[in-house]
Amino acid sequence: MSPDGNSAPAHAPAHAPGHGGGAHPAQEGPRGVAAPGTVHVSHDHHELGFLRKYVFSVDHKVIAIQFMLTGLFFLVLGGLFAMAIRHQVAWPWKPIPGLSVLFPDTGGVISPEFYTMLFTMHGTIMIFFVIIPLLTGAFGNFLIPLMVGAPDMAFPKLNMFGYWAMIPAIFFALLGFFVEGGAAAAGWTAYPTLSTIATAAPGSLTGQTWWLMALTWVGVSSMMGAVNYVTTIFKMRAPGMTMMRMPLSIWGLLIAALLQLFALPVLTAASILQLLDRTLHTGFFTPSNLLVNATRPELLSNAGAALDGASGGHPLLWQHLFWFYSHPAVYIMVLPAMGFASDILSTHARKPVFGYKPMVYSMSAIAGLGFIVWGHHMFTSGMNPALGMSFMVATIMIALPSAVKVFNWIGTLWGSRIHLNSAMLNALAFVAMFIIGGLSGIWMAATPVDIYIHDTYIVVAHFHYVVFAGSVFAIWAAIYHWFPKMFGRQMNETLGKVHFIGSFVFTNGVFYMMHQIGLAGLMRRTADPYTYATYAHLQESNELITLCAFALFVWQIFFVINFFHSMFWGKRVGRNPWRANSLEWEAPSPPGHGNFDRELAVYRGPYEYGSPEVSEDYLPQTRKLGDGAARPAQAHAHH
Amino acid sequence: MSFLNPSNGAWSILALLVALLLVLVTFVKFTRLWTVILIALLPILGVWTFVKAPEWGLWFPKDVSTHGAGMDSLFNLILWMVAITFVLTEVGLVWCVFRYHDKVPGKSLFTHGSHKLEMIWTAIPAVALLVIAFAQIGTFKQIKFEDHWPTGGPYSKDKPIAHVIAYQFAWLMRYPDANGSFDSVDVIESPFDFVVPVDTDIMFQLKSRDVLHSFFLPNLRLKQDAVPGMTIPMWFQATEVGEYDLICAELCGWGHYKMAGRLIVKSKPDYEKWLADKRAALKSNGTADLEAAE
Amino acid sequence: MSDPQPLRGRLAIAAGLFGLLLAACDPEPPRPELHYTLSADSKQLLADYPAAQDQLLGTLGMLFGSPSNPRYAVPEEWIDDERNPNDAWAELSEARQAELVAANKKAFATPLAALERGDFAAVEPAREALDLQAAWGEIRAGYDEIAAAMEAGTKSRTDLDKYVAENKADAIALFTDWYPSLRESAEMYRTQCLHCHGINGDGKGSTAEFLNPTPRDYQRGAFKWTALNEKARPRRADLYGVLENGVNGTAMLSFKRFSATQLEGLVDYVRLLSIRGETERNLAREDAEEGFKIEAVQEAYLDVWSKWDKSAEFVIAYDGEIPEATPEVIEHGRVLYNDATGANCVSCHGVGGLGDGPSAKEPDPNGGPVPISKKDDWGNPLGPRDLTQGIYRGGDRPIDLYRRLYAGINGTYMPAHSTIKDPQGNRKVTDEDLWAIVHYVRSLSKGKRL
After folding, report:
1. Residue A379: partners with Cβ closer than 8 Å, 6 or more residues away
2. Which residues 127-166 of B are in CB contact (within 8 Å) with A?
3. What percent of chain A has pLDDT over 70?
4. Domain boundary at B61, B79, B102, which?
5. Is the pLDDT of residue A462 over 80?
6. Which residues 322-381 on chain C approach chain A with CB closer than 8 angstroms?
7. Nearest residue of C to residue A102, measured between CA atoms
8. Does A95 sit within 8 Å of C199, measured CB to CB?
């Protein structure tokens, strides 16, 4: 098969790769995978209407693209919020261009409560509507069936529901801006009692209730996805695709899905409890004997004292429940990205991933340890300090698997043949900047140091290096890499490179200096820091950061142009433009309904680049070599 | 804009950014060269900013506490270990991009890993991380653990110098009456200013009336959330007379950024005088206001 | 498909230059231009006279300027007396002036130290101090000019030193003797106060909707937390005290992190907003139909001013030692507190002091079964203070409580107990009684303060 040998039409009827029949003996694949009903695509022939095909589609690829477009839209929206935040921090109480519509009296100067709404919604949108949907929603959906060799997800209708559950979430999240009192303003962490007492000035009026509804719906959506991904990966792999032959992207997505399965119910339960606290005046998170605005909240409650929130709950309970989900969520946001980076590095460096098994083990270790480190968000919260100490040790040790992964990425590049295209550049940048994000985490894990740096800009720098410089660059890399498979066209390299260099420079321009201003003590979520003597000298640094942030935002125009231009007018490519090994490149570009138009049998792992057994520098997973190599189990034994 | 002032170090950063923008034009043609340079600039500029940061005032504020030295040295210990790892890994990355490009003839090195290497680069960081972890324990205990709280001095857990009460959006320090009681009507309330004597172990109780707040003294490296429903004892010792910012470090609503206070460290006689003046003010009959009006 | 690469390359270069431009230019936005408006009350009163609305706004603009450049009009007779309300510095006592100079030295310690060193380049005035910035800018410009010439080689180090030596004293005086102009204080108000108290000082800023109690509306000239009798206009010290200590239990917080000079400036500006508001109210009530004649305007303006000028005459002080809070005194206070024919605190504040007395609320005018909160003069719902909390908004010293009892609380149902007379015209509640009630009320919060 030549790289451009896309001879099969996009909607060619799929053959059912028979089990036990054909060229491949049944024992070559894991038993029980790919039940006949799931691979036989019978309804291929009828033409679906526009709505069924593109809107209410059950096809995982269409749902993936829906997730991607939604995620990219919210990336722009969340980015706009970030720009307003940066504008305020650099030039407090100066008019923000365009906002004079919202604040006509002050000529566009925002109010402090609007600032709290901005950073609350920035965090919420970026995490729940951008990163998680893009990584697991878009790429999870797109890649899992294709990479494991399945015709679709295990539960296609559930999959569709997973996307449509995002719609109420989006509706509720944005509704906050149009209700009395504005959007949620208690931070994306929604700590009680600011979030539970409606009279606590301000902002936790109705907006917070809608925010919690949105969170619950996002949880439903993610849960649907996670169930689907885990089932598909466990039950629908092509013959011969053992777990240890899965691409690392699939491992990352699988582990992220497992994390979601185990952690999300806790967050969903917690957000429902907080909803009850707010609407029915239960007291899960609200202690008794409070004075809000010098008034006891029960006197203000319409429900009367008996049903009031002031009834002996504890604010730290929410923090425990919230971080029990939201710390694993950090790994949900980075494990798939790590997987994509591994695949992209290996493919474009034409070299096998260095230490496949250690990569898998370290991802599993991150996931396992990820469940016992949540307390490091609470070192200064009033939690028992002895508990803090055990969380510290666990947290510091979680740096170990991440370090192993970094070393293995460098090992992968060692002795390779790097093709510096847009995908590769972004993947390299992911590694280069993930190192920074990972290392700065050690300060935060160290309890005594964290006492000082907790909630300073150093924390902001840390998690933006992981989630923006890490995950978002990995998402860009993944888009450049898998775009040809999604749309049958390649993205423009020149624009891709232009987009890369500006993004890389300005990302570091924005986030690196935050380490220093954090060291100087600047607290996050501070609308106007410079009236404090401690912070008065930080304005120049913040101006610089803000300029870089504006430039970074404007720079994304190249990506937007490239994305939409290439979608319709990009260079057409064949099945396997990157000469890659994994299964998705066996399907047509874009794959038709049912994905594969030929029988699949997997003989080896996905990273056989530069193998001496063949003359080309790649060896697809499905390619059958001579007699000796026909038995997939031996293909691996060579190395 | 003031950072364009050439005497300011930030100017150099801007100049570098501008230079990098100029690179853009040649980037498409010389991708590998510029990628090598760009990634190499990460550790170079990264380390350089950390070296220059104290000069720019972008470093820890002055430490005037007994806790601070331990914390700062732990920070520096981690800083060194992190810096070495950072530079080494980035150099490795840069070298790979520089050396192993697609123009090199032949196929790539066909290897799936090395058990020995994996062991090495698991074991060494593991030991380093454990060292870091255990190095923290002493300082953390000293600041937070109950058995390290001051007992011998004038202030202890049962006899705190003051209750520090946080509410939207202010700090209120409540000192006991002349008999040391906090239940008296003659307690002294000092909004905004937390006045303490120098070189004394200060124990105080932290409370919140309404929502979460956080008591943050940058100069004393001290931070503790004030949690409604909890009374949290904290201790510190200030080593230098002066006035220091007290900042709220946990989002508490729209006025979070305004929730300022001040730690005023006085010499012991000055502190006693301040306390006596505050007590005398309770006896005021208002005639002082008459005189001021004249 | 043809490869459109060259076109895109040019596109890329153009965009790169655009980014460069973006990074190099100075995007710091200017201060917004704000405008005073008429209060909702005035608009309602003048609803039938749109022309009068414009005229009133114009008249007020003449008297008080604009938020970007607030300025009192100076009546002719004041010119003769050499009285200039725009120069609040002159109103301060010499002792206060000396205090403010000391406060300036502390607040500007960094720039002053730089000036002492002769390092003019390191001096930065405060953000809101616009006039100071401008005045310093002039000295600085000369310095920069010589510094630039020095780099070009046309001037020498001695020139610079000479310039520094010549201007150092002036520059230092600029900082130590700084007192904010109304314009500077308005800028301070804009960044710190406006979002609650509003551009006009009517307490209708955007944050106000989240607040309970609502922010003070200055426009009636009525302020609650003063030391004064007979609802007098506040003294500078009253306003300053609120800025300095905040109001316990409300969103009005302490602004002590600003210098005493800056706070005095804010007092000036609050006074301007209050006088402007009251003048506006008076004019809107009286002169709508015949238009605003110059004499009437001047009279209204001077009338409001005269109230502010007299405030010092109303200070409440107790002549003598305040009584000790012995158990007997407290018991006496308890009896008085519950005495329905005398102080009658119990009718609103309730037997236990929880603020739940029988008169705490009023019947629903719509006939609903649940009584509703009473309203204060501003129309905001208002409940009697819960005295068990130990949160006293006007200050927690006994004398502060005494003043609340003596003069009542301006704009609320809290009556002035000094004016309750028996049929013979004698005070029903004597000063001693007031102190007893003060001590009883304070004892209600014993050990309960949160």
Report:
1. A388, A391, A392, A447, A450, A451, A454
2. 129-130, 132-133, 136-137, 139-141, 143-145
3. 87
4. B102
5. yes
6. none
7. C206
8. no
Rounded Cα–Cα distance for residues A114 and A181 (Å): 10
What are the distances in angstroms from CA A214 to CA A172, A174, A558, C424? 5, 9, 31, 69
Cβ of C379: how many Cβ atoms within 10 Å?
9
Q: Can you list the domains of chain A with their CATH numbers?
A: 334-521 (1.20.210.10)
**Average pLDDT of the residues in A604-631:** 83
- Which of C8, C197, C211 would you mutate first to test chain A, the one with the most A CBs within 10 A? C8
Q: In angstroms, what separates the C-alpha of A146 from chain C's closest C-alpha?
A: 28
Distance CA C226, CA C233 (A): 9
- How do residues B95-125 score in pLDDT, each as one tens digit? 999 999 888 888 889 999 999 999 999 999 9
Q: What whole-number distance in Å separates Cα of residue A184 and Cα of residue A124?
A: 10
Give the one of B174, B284, B294 whose C-beta lies nearest to C449's C-beta: B174
Q: Which two tokens stand for residue B185?
A: 């009507």
**Nearest in space to A583 (alpha carbons), one of A9, A142, A41, A30:** A142
Query: Does residue B262 share a domain with residue B186?
Result: yes
For the cut 80, the answer to whether the pLDDT of residue A490 exceeds it is: yes
Q: Are residues B177 and B97 in the same domain?
A: no
Note whether residue B239 is domain-resident: yes
Under an 8 A CB cutoff, do A294 and C8 touch? no
Distance from the Cα of B104 to chain C's closest Cα (Å) equals: 26
Q: What is the DSSP string of B7-71?
A: TSTHHHHHHHHHHHHHHHHHHTTSHHHHHHHHHHHHHHHHHHHHHHHHHHT-SPPPP-BSSHHHH
CATH classification number, C327-444, choose in 1.10.3430.10, 1.10.150.120, 3.40.50.720, 1.10.760.10: 1.10.760.10
List residues bridging with B173 in a β-sheet: B164, B190
**What share of chain C in percent tops pLDDT 70?**
93
Q: Where does a domain end: B102, B123, B142? A: B102
Q: What's the number of domains chain B is made of?
A: 2
Q: What is the ipTM of this complex?
A: 0.92
Task: Residue A607: list chain B partners with CB under 8 A.
Answer: 112
The answer to whether residue B132 sits within a structural domain is: no
| DSSP structure string for A591-602 | -BTTB-SS----
Query: Is the CB of C30 inside 8 Å of chain B's CB atoms?
Result: no
Domain at B195, CATH number? 2.60.40.420
Chain A touched by B88 (CB under 8 Å): no
- Enumerate residues 50 to 79 of chain C having a beta carbon within 8 A of any beta carbon in chain A: none
Inside any domain, residue B241:
yes
In this structure, is residue B21 part of a structural domain? yes
DSSP string across A176-232: GGGSTT-B--STTTT-TTTTT-TTSTTT-SHHHHHHHHHHHHHHHHHHHHHHHHHHH
Tell me phi and psi for residue A200, to 5 degrees.
-65, 115
Which residues of chain B make contact with A380, given a CB cutoff of 8 A?
214, 223-225, 249
- Omega within 30 of 0 (cis) for the link into A193: yes
Q: Domain range holding B14?
A: 2-102
Q: What are phi and psi of B192, to 5 degrees?
A: 75, -50
Can you tell me the distance from the alpha carbon of C352 to that of C388, in angstroms, rounded to the nearest whole number? 8
Q: What is the percent of chain B with per-residue pLDDT over 70, rounded to a whole number?
A: 92
The DSSP symbol for C125 reads -
Q: Which of C248, B170, B210, C209 is nearest to A202 (CA)?
A: C209
Listed by start position, the domains of chain C span: 109-176, 190-314, 327-444
